[in-house]
């Protein structure tokens, strides 16, 4: 970097990434997968949202007593929740996505919530990257594509950004960012848990005692 020159990132989008310990996830992986398939047996029809094919479960509350809820609480508690004010409470809902071969999720956002995320449970190779689209790609196209590759890599100035799904990883992101799941080109199911987070308590008008549906950060 040249002397007296600094490139400062202003107004960035924040992605919170967390990786569970391999030994813990490996121990629980089969139980997590079995739970997901059990839910599919219970409600085989599922829902149709952004999914093109595949199976979309009903929506569950983080207060449901099961292994997935435990994992989400732990992962969020050790990642995004460590950055929030003590007065902030979070309402969390989640659902299971089982993408069979050749199924995918259309580009979408998550309205009516503040943060969203995904926790990958089963992710075979080539089972569908998670792709995010830059909302400013159109207006900033000439500027972004004028920078040299190294500078773009250093600042994440791209038209889109991809995550290769990795078992035992989770990422939380702003709900307003457009994203899609690419087609599952493997021969096996891809299993992920998606979630939405609504935040309260960041203003002076929120009364935590009257919002039992919100959980305290741990």
Percent of residues in β-strands: 25-35%
What is the CATH domain class of the largest domain? Mainly Beta
Which sequence of SSEs, written as H and E, runs from N to C? Answer: EHEEEHEEEEHHEEEE
The residue ranges in which pLDDT falls below 50 over 5 or more consecutive positions are none
Name given to the CATH architecture of the largest domain: Sandwich
Q: How many helices?
A: 4
Structural class: alpha+beta
If you consult CATH, what is the topology of the largest domain? Jelly Rolls
Q: Distance between termini?
A: 41 Å
Total individual domains: 2
CATH-assigned homologous superfamily of the largest domain? q2cbj1_9rhob like domain
- Helix fraction? 10-25%
What is the β-strand count?
Answer: 12
| Dominant shape | globular
Radius of gyration, whole Å: 19 Å
Characterize the main sheet: 7 strands, antiparallel
Mean pLDDT: 93
């Amino acid at each position: 970097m040249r002397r007296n020159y600094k490139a400062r990132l202003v107004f960035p989008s924040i992605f919170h990434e967390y990786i569970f310990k391999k030994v813990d996830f490996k121990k629980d992986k089969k139980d997590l997968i079995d739970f997901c398939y059990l839910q599919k047996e219970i409600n085989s029809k599922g829902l149709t949202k952004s999914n093109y094919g595949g199976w979309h479960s009903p929506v569950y509350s983080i207060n449901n007593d099961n292994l997935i809820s435990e994992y989400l609480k732990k992962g969020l508690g050790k990642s995004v929740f460590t950055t929030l004010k003590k007065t902030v409470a979070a309402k969390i809902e989640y659902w299971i996505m089982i993408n069979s071969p050749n199924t995918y999720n259309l580009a979408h956002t998550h309205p009516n919530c503040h943060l969203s995320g995904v926790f990958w449970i089963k992710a075979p190779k080539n089972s569908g990257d998670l792709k995010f689209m830059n909302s400013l790609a159109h207006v900033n196209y000439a500027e972004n594509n004028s920078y040299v590759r190294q500078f773009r890599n250093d600042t994440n100035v791209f038209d889109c950004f991809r995550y290769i799904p990795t078992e035992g990883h989770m990422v939380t992101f702003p709900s307003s960012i457009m994203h899609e799941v690419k087609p599952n080109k493997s021969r096996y199911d891809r299993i992920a848990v998606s979630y939405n987070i609504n935040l309260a308590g960041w203003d002076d008008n929120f009364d935590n005692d009257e919002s039992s549906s919100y959980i305290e950060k741990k």
